[in-house]
Design brief:
Among the domains are: 21-191, Serine Threonine Protein Phosphatase 5, Tetratricopeptide repeat; 354-537, Nucleotide cyclase, GGDEF domain (Alpha-Beta Plaits, 2-Layer Sandwich). The chain is 71% helix and 14% strand. It is built from 15 helices and eight strands. Strand 7 and strand 8 form a beta hairpin. It is extended.
């Protein structure tokens, strides 16, 4: 009876495994056939989910694919969940370093987009990973980070009800208790380190004592060797005395015979060597003559070929150099007008299709009192000042992979989230802060010189845009849509020296910067809109 039950259990588990394998195989088949990004994303996520236990490596690969597709589509929830699943798969495969990286990424994305469940789970996993590796400082860091996060999301402005508030308070209490426990473990680890240092000193003293004993043994062995040397010297002196006792005539006779024998042998050896040298010399002369003739002929042929080949290579190199220089020059001119991806498409297809981006960030920078400053400067000097400012703006936005769209008079327009798919407005806000810092420093310099200076207003908004190339001869890359108009309204309602951000951009970057809410302000053709000033980068 027991055996039949065991057999039934094995058959059930085997059947479940086969069905699961068939399900994953079918999902992979559908994934390969699919051409829709959204469908491929969902199929990749399902494959990762079903493979999480049986094949963590495959689960991690498909979860990464799902996360990338979700980023392209703009599905932040699916992107966060897929990143978290990648971390879970790496954790099950015992790749703790990779798991920590994915948990950290999931925490950052979830924090920026208000996905508190994934953010809390990621911090908890990072804390457990640190404890698993006995890194109490890292564990304490993540536990403290979780307490701060829960505090920031459970204040008077939180949208949860009373029960959720009590659960957060209980969870905060548990985390604070856990923090105290981690600090105690860290103190114990410090005490253990001191104990190990004392033990190490004792072991060092034992090693020094053993080394001293070995040195004494070595001195004893050297003394024995010296005694043996004295015995050998005595034996040498005894042999020398024996030689002195031989008769002088016997010694002379022995030396003469030995000398004669050496001379006879030397004469025979010299005769044989001379004969062999003569034969070798004759053979070498013959071979050398043949080799020299062959080498000269070969050298002549190679020289003729080398000259012809070098002439052709130089001509080809000069032509290639001219072609490459022209290509570099044309590519540089094209990249000054169009983004890299658009330029590549234009070169490949000779045309560019208009594209819609669901979440792009647009920034307007406009100088205050431009007409007044222009009246105080010559046209040449005015253009130089504008070129200096806009060139520095170009350098600043290039650090954050932001696309410059165009300049209209004294207005500078740029956007992110286009070809680089950078949907978060954080980078463009950082660039705006650097632009205002640059203009502030330039203002101080120009005031010291008694010269006029520029001050600017900055407006930022996030939303869908359409981007494309217009014109048949002089290409112009531009963006269109209500998002562009709203960004312009943000700039118009901004005070000089400030950065005015719309409510949509604020919610996507609120955890990374310090803010000054402005409330609802009337905007042209838009009505009352919530606006926020950026006052700086948040420091933790």
């Amino acid at each position: 009876m027991k055996y039949s039950s065991a057999i039934a259990l094995v058959l059930f588990l085997l059947g479940s495994f086969v069905l699961s394998a068939q399900s994953v195989y079918q999902l992979e088949t559908n994934y390969k056939k699919s051409s829709s990004k959204s469908e491929k994303m969902n199929l990749a996520f399902q494959i990762a989910e079903k493979s999480l236990i049986s094949n963590p490596k495959k689960a991690s690969q498909y979860a990464v694919i799902a996360s990338q597709l979700a980023t392209e589509i703009g599905d932040k929830r699916k992107e966060t969940d897929a990143t978290y699943m990648s971390a879970e798969a790496e954790y099950r495969a015992r790749n703790y370093s990779a798991a920590a990286g994915y948990y950290n990424k999931a925490w950052n994305v979830a924090r920026n987009y208000g996905l508190s469940d994934v953010a809390i789970n990621s911090m908890d996993k990072l804390k457990n990973l640190a404890l698993k590796q006995n890194d109490y400082k890292e564990a304490l860091k993540w536990s403290t980070e979780m307490v701060n996060y829960l505090n920031s999301n459970s204040g008077p402005g939180a949208r949860s009800g009373g029960d959720a508030q009590r659960r957060l308070e209980n969870q905060l209490a548990e985390l604070e208790a856990e923090n105290r426990s981690l600090r105690e473990q860290l103190a114990q680890a410090t005490g253990q380190s001191a104990f190990m240092e004392s033990s190490y000193k004792n072991q060092l003293q034992d090693v020094e004592a053993k080394t001293q004993n070995k040195l004494i043994e070595k001195d004893s062995a050297l003394s024995q060797i010296a005694l043996e040397k004295l015995k050998a010297d005595s034996l040498v002196r005894t042999n020398a005395l024996r030689l002195k006792n031989l008769s002088e005539e016997q010694m002379i006779d022995s030396i003469v015979r030995a000398q004669q024998e050496r001379e006879i042998q030397a004469q025979k050896r010299r005769a044989a060597e001379a004969e062999l040298a003569q034969e070798k010399s004759e053979a070498l002369r013959n071979i050398l003559a043949l080799v020299v003739g062959f080498v000269l002929l070969l050298a002549l042929l190679m020289y003729i070929r080398f000259v012809a080949k070098r002439r052709a290579a130089n001509e080809l190199a000069n032509k290639n150099k001219i072609i490459q220089e022209e290509q570099v020059r044309s590519n540089a001119l094209l990249l000054n007008i169009l983004p890299p991806a658009i330029a590549d498409e234009l070169k490949a297809k000779n045309k560019v299709a208009a594209r819609k981006y669901d979440q792009a960030t647009v920034m307007f920078v406009d100088f205050k009192g431009f007409t007044h400053v222009a009246e105080q400067l010559s046209p040449e000097r005015l253009v130089e000042e504008l070129d200096f400012c806009f060139s520095n703006f170009d350098q600043i936005i290039s650090k954050y992979k932001i696309e410059k769209i165009k300049t209209v008079g004294d207005a500078y327009i740029c956007a992110s989230g286009l070809s680089d798919m950078n949907a978060s407005p954080s980078d463009i806000i950082k660039a705006a802060l650097e632009i205002q810092d640059f203009l502030l420093a330039l203002k101080a310099e120009r005031m010291g010189q008694g010269l006029p200076y520029f001050e600017a207003r900055v407006g930022i908004h996030v939303g869908p845009v359409v981007a494309g190339v217009v014109g048949a001869k002089k290409f112009a890359y531009d963006i269109w849509g209500d998002t562009v108009n709203t960004a312009a309204r943000m700039e118009e309602e901004c005070e000089t020296g400030h950065i005015n951000v719309s409510e949509a951009a604020y919610w996507l970057a609120k955890y990374e910067f310090e803010w000054e809410p402005r409330g609802k302000i009337m905007a042209k053709n838009k009505g009352a809109m919530d606006m926020y000033y950026v006052t700086g980068v948040k420091t933790y």
